[in-house]
Design goal:
The structure is a single chain. With 223 residues, this protein is α/β, with parallel strands linked by helices. It has one domain: Rossmann fold, CATH 3.40.50.300. Helices cover 43% and strands 18% of the residues. Strands 3-2-4-1-5-6-7 form a 7-stranded parallel β-sheet, with helices on both faces. Helix 2 packs across helix 8. The radius of gyration is 17 Å and the shape is globular. The relative contact order is 0.17. The structure holds guanosine-5'-triphosphate and magnesium ion. Guanosine-5'-triphosphate (GTP) binds next to helix 2.
């Protein structure tokens, strides 16, 4: 039985990866840059996205897919910024899977976007195993969570190209060392790119948005 369990999981992951690959091919054709955001509950994913879409919306076509166990509150927060958002409620599943994204894409396939942001379900473990076809995976770590988290939840930090240290305005109140968090993450992924942001003060948001625009251009440049 133990082996059967493992095989089922492997099959599931293989099917997910095949579907994710086909989603990525579609998005490359459409020049849609897709970003998958992962973090613990409450690390500031929606807050970061609120500021991000606000900056991008005048020049780019932006869509946000919001993954949650229940409620469409996060999608409402994005819509309040004048940007399209689709809520995917997983009804208990602790991560998004490629077939959930594919279902959304079936509905909206006639429309194209420059940026799609996928806010994964708040969880630092499960989402790390599921490729959603994204071009860029970003893990968020907030100051109150502690700088030891990369070592404790390695897969999220090993599979993300970028890490955002969020809630930097809270640094004076917590025993959090950004350099230690970065060093811990680099042990898992030496080339991880690190941003420092605060959605409260706006610190670091311009640099983060500029980096996203450049990453999109680089992905679709035909040099
Ligand atoms: N001080 C401070 N608080 C923040 C910052 N960003 C977010 N918060 C607060 O942290 C809480 C959670 O923020 P969200 O953006 O909802 O976090 P999330 O990661 O989207 O949460 P889930 O979707 O539930 O996983 C809210 O009360 C925010 O106001 C920040 O930069 N500084
Ligand atoms: Mg959220």
């Amino acid at each position: 039985m133990k082996h059967l369990h493992v095989d089922v999981k492997q099959d599931l992951l293989r099917a997910n990866d095949l579907l994710a690959r086909s989603l990525r091919e579609t998005w490359v054709r459409q020049e849609t840059f897709v970003v998958n955001l992962l973090s613990s509950p409450g690390s500031g994913k929606t807050s970061l996205l609120e500021g991000t879409v606000e900056s991008l919306r005048s020049s780019y076509r932006v869509l946000v897919l919001e993954g949650d166990l229940e409620t469409d509150r996060d999608a409402e927060r994005i819509r309040a910024r004048g940007v399209e958002a689709v809520q995917i409620t997983t009804g208990g599943t602790c991560h998004l899977e490629a077939h959930m994204i594919a279902q959304v894409w079936e509905q909206i396939k006639e429309k194209t976007y420059d940026f799609v942001f996928i806010e994964n379900v708040g969880n630092l473990v499960c989402p790390a195993s599921f490729d959603l076809g994204e071009h860029l995976r970003v893990v968020l770590l907030s100051v109150p969570e502690g700088d030891d988290k990369p070592a404790k939840y390695p897969k999220a930090f090993r599979t993300a190209q970028w890490m955002v240290l969020t809630k930097m305005d809270l640094l004076p109140h917590f025993d959090f060392d950004p350099d230690r968090a970065e060093a811990e993450a680099r042990k898992l992924r030496p080339d991880i790119r690190v941003f420092h942001t605060s959605s409260r003060t706006g610190e670091g948001l311009d640099g983060w948005v500029r980096a996203l625009i450049l990453a999109r251009e680089k992905t679709f440049s035909r040099s």
